[in-house]
Amino acid sequence: MSNAIAQQRGLGAMIWDYITTVDHKKIAHLYLVSGGFFFLIGGLEAMIIRIQLMKPDNEFISAGLYNEMITMHGTTMIFLAAMPLIFALMNAVVPLQIGARDVAFPFLNSLGFWLFLFGGLLLNVSWFTGGAPDAGWTNYAPLSTTSAGHGVDYYVMGLQISGAGTLIGGINFLVTIINMRAPGMTYMRMPLFTWTTFITSVLILFAFPALTVGLFLMMFDRMFGSAFFDVTAGGNEIIWEHLFWIFGHPEVYILILPLFGAFSDIISTFSKKRLFGYSAMVFATVLIGFLGFMVWAHHMFTVGLGPIANSIFAVSTMAIAVPTGIKIFNWLFTMWGGSIKMSAAMLWSIAFIPSFTIGGMTGVMLASAAADYQYHDTYFVVGHFHYVIVGGVVFGIFAALHYWWPKMFGKVLNEKLGHLAFWPFFIGFHLTFFIQHFLGLMGMPRRYWTYFEGQSLATGNMISTVGAFLMAIGTLIFLYNIVYTAIKEPQASADPWDGRTLEWSIPSTPPFYNFKQTPLVRGLDPLWIEKMEGRKGVTPAEPLGDIHMPNASVLPFLMSLGLFIAGFGFIYQVDHNAWFIAVAVGMGLTLGSMLTRSLKDDLGYHIHKEDLVEKGDGK
Amino acid sequence: MKGWIGKLRPVFIFSVLTLFLAGCGEENLSALKPKGYGAELLLDLMVISIAIMLFVFVIVMAIYTFVLIRYRRKKGDEDYIPKQTEGNKSLEIIWTVIPILLLLILAVPTVQATFDLADEAPRSEEGSITIEVTGNQYWWHFNYPDQEVSTSQDLYIPTGERVYLDMTSSDVIHSFWVPSIAGKMDTNPGGNENTMYLEAYEEGVYWGHCAELCGESHSLMDFRVIAVSSEDYDQWISDMQNIDAEATPETQSAQDGKAAFENSCMGCHAIGNSPAGVGPNLSNFGNRTKIAGILDYNKENLVDWIMNPDEFKPGNKMQGYNVSEEEAQQIADYLMQLDHSEVTPESVSSSSEE
Amino acid sequence: MTDHTDSTSKHKIDIHKKEHKEEMIHQVISFTLMILFTFIAFGMVILEISSYFVKPVLILLAVVQVVFQLYYFMHMKNKGHTMPAMMMFSGIAVAILTIITFTTIIWW
Amino acid sequence: MSHDDVLNPKQMPHDPEKATLEGKNKFIGFWMFLGGETVLFASLFGTYLALVRSTSGENTPEHLFGLELVFIMTMLLLTSSLTSVYAMYHMKNHDFKKMQLWLGITVLLGLGFLGCEIYEFYHYIHEYGFTFRSSAFGSAFYTLVGFHGGHVVFGLSWIVALMIRNQKRGLNLYNAPKFYIASLYWHFIDVVWVFIFTVVYLMGKVG
Ligand code: HEA
Ligand code: HEA
Ligand code: CUA
Ligand SMILES: [Cu+2]
Asked: What positions does the domain Cytochrome oxidase subunit II transmembrane region profile occupy (chain B) (predicted)?
């Protein structure tokens, strides 16, 4: 029986420990490192894009490579950077916030991670095997179905595998939040980050199947000769667009909602105030999630759906501004009358409010269906979505990382360097993307490899590129901060921010079983309540007892590896039948691991209460 | 929607936009300088929406600035514990209802404009012009079915009149966009035909772009809309109808070029009316201002293009023929004298500059 | 759960057995109805009744059958199923939206 | 509750499938999964409905489909749904033998269904030359019905694996949730079939 206490037995042991771990806190580390890695790759791709567009008639990279660059930039950033970073936060924080010892499905949690990672690796292998996907991250048919080479096949297989991982992760969080809450933690006492994780998981559950089907159809068309999107055989290319956006629009709320939650927690902590309008915030989250499913066709206003459909989708899209506005105002009024501390985490959150508001407002402008005939597929749209994504999601990830870093790694990120990273990134962000709105209106379509002298687009693009470099500088300072903190900063206390929620009631970093005794929750912001009543920690809900823990397992890794191998088989069987061997080997590995999992009992093990007492804090 | 919005527009553009940029882009490329009905309608709509957004933004920023200045933690206040307010019903109602009202103000003109731009009713009237637009990787084909005239790359339309477009694609999805005259519309392959209309106010040459990613040379799939007076338009149509594809060119070089062209190029290119083709229709190639939509129009460039099209438009479909440099020179001579009409982009831009 | 004394749990088991029996009866009834609906559905098609009428009825019959499956066979009517029910309904809502789209605003 | 209790319950509780936390998690988690599957199949149905008229040549739904076989398949699958209900009934009464028996019957009925389906596909391909690649309708038909068939295969393998694995040791609190969710899966397969025979076959026949 493996012991989950990480022992310092050298690098090999540590790697093995991470490969087999089912501990949500370690899985959070895995997500963070791989998501961070992909963020750097996506950022590098963004820099190459910006360098190419720096001046008119530039030929820094070729047109074909440029299309691969934007496709991989969009795909990497959305699926392989933003999503995993969000999953890192959810894994690190949600079980602690609800007072749980573990997630509902530790094994599946690990499987979800490895599927994502192998899917992402598969996608990126395409760079080295003759060309990355080049049909845009939206992969519209028939451009994608007719794209030469195997790039799009990698897109299909890579996203299919990592998408399965995301779906599994989503179900895990749903059940964790439904079933694993500590006594007294009613739904209306859950911290906002937990709430938004919950709604996000619901969105994942209902949005990803549409992508799954879309990818299957794309796979069949490209690899097995079916005719879904092939108009010459009676197919219809618009089906892909619908399936993609039925998934794609909820996806953007999957990205932003968890960070709305993180901002809520951060803003209330650093204003020393309870979140203003808690129930309205919860309601707004649910409403955004709900409306998020009825608006996808706003990405298709120019497809020719007709004025009736366009009008309906325009109005329903605009409706989302209402719950989002509720949130913005509630954050403002949380700070109102508070005592605002400008920590680095708070700085990112403060910067988020106006940035996201601008992005949201350009969103509403886009929602105006007829006006979108001008905006659509121009840099105005690029401006819009980077404002919400970078100004919302990326700012949010930075804020949340600063906030929860002590809980994840036991040290507070250096505040000075935190501020130092913020300013170039913030200024660079506005320089890069604000000007793009005007470029769009001045007639610059998106996904343009180059533009010409004499179109008055040069100055704007130059400014935009300069801004991107500033963002890169900010990112590098942040990376430096991580290293600096690891070496120089002292161990953090359990509650460095004067926190309000349960994660701050246990040591930083928490013991692997999280809570020695399950806490009793007596209201919203349980730790704050206890502190106000003069107690040190949270009242336990049970006497000290044995703790049941799951076993580590290498099977999730093997299952994902199997699909990775089978992925190559599917991609290349078009060229040669022998590649079906890879399919067989890979699927054999995956199905064999699944069978092992299902036939071998895995009952976990117990930590005895005597051991808990001896270990004191579990440190 | 004209009226007050119309008056607001110049003021607005002047005050806000010029703040950020010296100009608003190229005269005939920018959506901010409308020269046609659609673009104007849409700019009005944008102005309404920007006004609403600015209003909201000012309010948000006012609260924001006040809060940040007033409630920032000060030295000595570290232990101060603020009042833990739960919320406020009337505030909640205010910031729910006011946005709803603002959005309604935006929704009404949005729906109106959406239906307006889809209005096909006048089309059935006598004499209305229909043009079939086909997007191809990476060029545009325009066919005037009623007049039996075809052209590529340059779309001629009369001013002050609605011209209806029936739009499809021969390969992947493209999107037809002339920012200063109208919005954009996708061209779909297969049976999903789209329609839109153009109405240009002034004579002029307007830039058009392909706005949907369609492959390597997506960014090079430019075209032009040439708006001319209705007399000139009629003139142009009749000039085009009377092209004699067999006419013998004047110079010897051009005559040789014609022979070489017929030998190597006719499989894809047509001179005279051809509702569709593998390559652009070259009937009035002598009147172009650009080669393949992007290159400056001169003989040198044309020869280069013929010898090596892939260098200028990566991935384009002009391939599989074999001509020598000399033949290319002759073909260029031939093609450049195919100027059958007095109505040309030059004639328009010179007249509109006066 | 294991700490009931023997006599009460014996009693409980009997009660439960009875409950299970009753539930089983419901399930058999719903099964019979489902079979009946299937007969009607196939019958209508074989008899070639006008399609304007048949199509909605077929859909209706399918929906009723599925309700039986969910509520009786899969116990969604029992307590402890609020979350499952909520998720199924959300899923069904998205499903309906999707299908409406695919039958209306995609051409031909 | 220690794990010895889980594997050797001295006394089975009322709802053995939900008696442990793991069981409860599986139960809720599986329902969530079914919610997702609903959207998955809806996307497939939507695609099918959008492409059902994109036929080529003779091979239209009216022409291809025969109702007799579909009727038999429907009866097999509906009955198997009932038999798996019986199995769960016996599980709740802690009667492992009978549970296994009814699960066995379920599997047999499922295999019968699968046999018919394979025959049907074979028939279309060889009699009519109607394949996955013939037309957009062909692609959509085989994909929708094939996805369902794939679910049947997976469901059957799952149930058989569970039956064999637990043959010797009987019902306990560790495997009860597994049996229960496998049966939920089986019902869901039936739910999907109800729509397939209605939307694909019956409405296809009506035209
Ligand atoms: C995190 C991601 C994210 C978020 C949160 C949003 C939020 C919104 N988006 Fe955005 N969007 C994207 C990511 C995102 N979007 C991406 C990636 C694309 C491009 C995809 C591609 O094509 O590649 C896109 C594209 C896109 C389009 C298609 C454009 C086109 O291609 O032509 C549209 C059109 O309606 C749109 C609208 C909106 C709206 C109305 C919101 C709303 O949710 C915004 C709501 C917020 C506010 C409005 C601000 C706060 C509110 C108040 C202060 C209250 C008062 C306000 C008013 C009364 C206005 N988005
Ligand atoms: C989460 C989503 C996300 C994020 C964070 C970003 C971040 C950025 N994006 Fe991107 N973007 C998209 C999602 C995102 N983008 C999508 C979906 C598209 C559409 C794609 C399509 O059309 O299909 C797009 C398209 C897009 C375009 C339009 C391309 C075109 O249409 O032709 C541009 C152009 O400026 C751009 C720029 C940037 C920039 C400058 C950043 C910056 O914020 C990046 C900042 C980060 C860095 C600068 C990293 C710094 C680090 C280093 C440089 C060190 C590297 C070191 C090592 C690797 C060791 N993006
Ligand atoms: Cu054609 Cu882009
Ligand atoms: Cu959207």
From this structure: 23-121
